Description:
Elements: E1 6-12, H1 17-37, E2 40-48, E3 54-62, H2 66-70, E4 75-81, E5 92-102, E6 116-121, E7 137-142, E8 147-151, H3 157-185, E9 200-205, E10 210-213, E11 218-221, H4 223-227, H5 231-253
Parallel strand pairs: 4-9
Antiparallel strand pairs: 1-3, 1-5, 2-3, 4-5, 6-7, 7-8, 9-10, 10-11
Amino acid sequence: xxxxxxxxxxxxxxxxxxxxxxxxxxxxxxxxxxxxxxxxxxxxxxxxxxxxxxxxxxxxxxxxxxxxxxxxxxxxxxxxxxxxxxxxxxxxxxxxxxxxxxxxxxxxxxxxxxxxxxxxxxxxxxxxxxxxxxxxxxxxxxxxxxxxxxxxxxxxxxxxxxxxxxxxxxxxxxxxxxxxxxxxxxxxxxxxxxxxxxxxxxxxxxxxxxxxxxxxxxxxxxxxxxxxxxxxxxxxxxxxxxxxxxxxxxxxxxxx
Length: 256
């Protein structure tokens, strides 16, 4: 599974507009990191707001060792900074949730067409206004599970349907993997995050110019460098990989 690509979802948590701005920052960070590593990035969905930022955005990242390098990014990311609209200079705390889903092949997840309800509609932009005169947006409902996927970022109905099916396949695959991941996580501090969407894993503290990963106690400085998605983020991810490798070695030694 470490060699598979991923679907990454970033969603605004608590904090209103500041949370949505931070969500956009994170999504752009992962997009930039994909470019830094020579990985392919494709936008699946994006829900921008009229006041700036995004409520939710998702995309696929494919390339060598994508899942191995990004699988520990799932969880709640917290930002502490003074919003541009804050006149009193107070520091606000906001959150964004990152979900990492390994992308399964069609062989791994077989979907029966009779289990699907597919609807089309006109794509809409921020505020709900229609941005397309044709019905290019697609909603796919998986009837047995009730999972609903909307896709409208692509130009054609065919492309949006393909994007929606990619997301649906990953959601169904996630369900299959949850028990397996839970068993792995019971003996390890650094957890593979599929079902850990409420766990606060990292803090971006702007006044102190630091990024702290709370799971392993690792702190790096130069927040903007990390958000730029280049070697600064790569070094942070490398620290997580090394910690995970040491944990796995120790579990073998002690027989767990």
